[in-house]
Automatic annotation (TrEMBL):
Cited SUPFAM superfamilies: 6-phosphogluconate dehydrogenase C-terminal domain-like (SSF48179), NAD(P)-binding Rossmann-fold domains (SSF51735)
Keyword Metal-binding: no
Pathway given in the UniProt record: Lipid metabolism; butanoate metabolism
Keywords: Oxidoreductase
Family under the similarity heading: Belongs to the 3-hydroxyacyl-CoA dehydrogenase family.
Protein name: 3-hydroxyacyl-CoA dehydrogenase
One Pfam family in the UniProt entry: 3HCDH_N
Residues annotated as domain 3-hydroxyacyl-CoA dehydrogenase C-terminal: 185-280
KW Oxidoreductase (keyword) present: yes
Superkingdom as given in the UniProt entry: Bacteria
Domain 3-hydroxyacyl-CoA dehydrogenase NAD binding residue range list: 3-182
PANTHER family noted in UniProt: 3-HYDROXYACYL-COA DEHYDROGENASE FAMILY PROTEIN, 3-HYDROXYBUTYRYL-COA DEHYDROGENASE
Length: 281
C-alpha cells in the first residue's frame, strides 16, 4: 500500500493523517477548501515539531512525515490514487453516504473505503456504493497519536480480505485492532456514551460537581480521564449526535441528558469553544 487519503480535517482527521504520515505512508488530507486545509496542515506541522523536539519521533520519521503529508481540496485529485480512504467527517449519516458515493465513483476499483464513525452503520453506508465488500469502519480514538486502539467494524457485506487489510494497516500504525460485528455504538461508544450521559445526569441533579464526578471515576474506577472531561474533549455537539443516534436505534436508556441538549443549544461545545461542562477560558 502506498497512499492513504483522509477526508475531513477536524480533530480526528488531523490525528489520523498525522499517525499515518509518521508511520511512513504517503497521506493526502482533503477538506472543503484551502483555508481549512492550511489551518489543519499548520496544526499537524506543530504537532510534528513538538513530537520531534520532545524525543517522541526520530529525525528520519519526522523528515519523512513532513514530506509525505500533502493537502488537496479537490476530492477527486486527493482520492484517485489512494489504496485506502478514511472518512472523518461529521457524524451525519447523509453526509457520510454522500462522501462515500463520490469516493466510489472516483477511486480505483480495489480501493478500500473506511469510515471513522463511532456509532453509525458501515452496512448502510456500504450499501450506497458499488463495493460494499470493501467498505468497513475504522474507529480511531482521540487523541489519535496517543490512543492505541482501532475498532474494526465489519458490515454485513464486508469481506474477510477487507478486514484483514485494515488490521494490517492498524499494525503498521502500531495500534491494536479489535474486530467488532456491526451493532449501533459498536463496543466502546455504546459503553462510553452511557457512562458519560449518566455523569451528566448526576451533574444536573446536583449529586456532585463535575470535578468531583471525574475525580471519583479516575481514582475509584481507574479511568484515565473522567467522563465529563472526555465529553468536553470529544465535543458536546458530537456527543449529542451520537446519543441521538443511539437513542433512535437502541432505545430509552440512551435518551440524551437535558443538560447536554441545553449546553449544545447555548454553544457550549467543550474545549473547542472554550466552554462546556468545564470553563477553558
Amino acid at each position: 500500500m502506498k497512499q492513504i487519503t483522509v477526508v475531513g480535517s477536524g480533530v480526528m482527521g488531523k490525528g489520523i493523517a498525522y499517525s499515518c504520515a509518521v508511520s511512513g505512508f504517503k497521506v493526502v488530507l482533503n477538506d472543503l477548501n484551502d483555508d481549512i486545509l492550511a489551518k489543519a496542515k499548520k496544526e499537524i506541522d506543530e504537532l510534528l515539531d513538538s513530537s520531534f523536539r520532545g524525543g517522541f519521533l526520530k529525525e528520519e520519521n519526522y523528515e519523512n512525515a513532513k514530506m509525505n503529508l500533502l493537502v488537496d481540496s479537490n476530492l477527486e485529485v486527493a482520492a484517485k490514487e489512494a489504496d485506502l480512504v478514511i472518512e472523518a467527517v461529521l457524524e451525519k449519516i447523509e453526509l457520510k453516504i454522500d462522501v462515500f458515493q463520490k469516493l466510489d465513483r472516483m477511486c480505483k476499483p480495489e480501493t478500500v473505503l473506511a469510515t471513522n464513525t463511532s456509532t453509525m452503520s458501515p452496512t448502510e453506508i456500504g450499501a450506497q456504493t458499488s463495493r460494499p465488500d470493501k467498505v468497513v469502519a475504522m474507529h480511531f480514538f482521540n487523541p489519535v497519536h496517543k490512543m492505541k486502539l482501532i475498532e474494526v467494524v465489519r458490515g454485513l457485506e464486508t469481506s474477510d480480505e477487507t478486514v484483514e487489510f485494515v488490521k494490517g494497516v492498524a499494525a503498521s500504525l502500531r495500534k491494536e485492532a479489535v474486530e467488532v460485528n456491526e451493532f449501533p455504538g459498536f463496543v466502546t461508544s455504546r459503553m462510553n456514551c452511557l457512562i458519560g450521559n449518566e455523569a451528566m445526569n448526576m451533574l444536573m441533579e446536583g449529586v456532585a460537581s463535575a470535578k468531583d464526578i471525574d475525580k471519583a471515576m479516575k481514582l475509584g474506577l481507574n479511568h484515565p480521564m473522567g467522563p465529563l472531561e472526555l465529553a468536553d474533549l470529544v465535543g458536546l455537539d458530537t456527543r449529542l449526535r451520537n446519543m441521538e443516534y443511539l437513542y433512535a436505534t437502541l432505545g430509552e436508556k440512551y435518551r440524551p441528558c437535558p443538560l447536554l441538549v441545553n449546553y449544545v443549544k447555548a454553544g457550549r461545545l467543550g474545549k473547542k469553544s472554550g466552554k462546556g461542562l468545564y470553563d477553558y477560558t
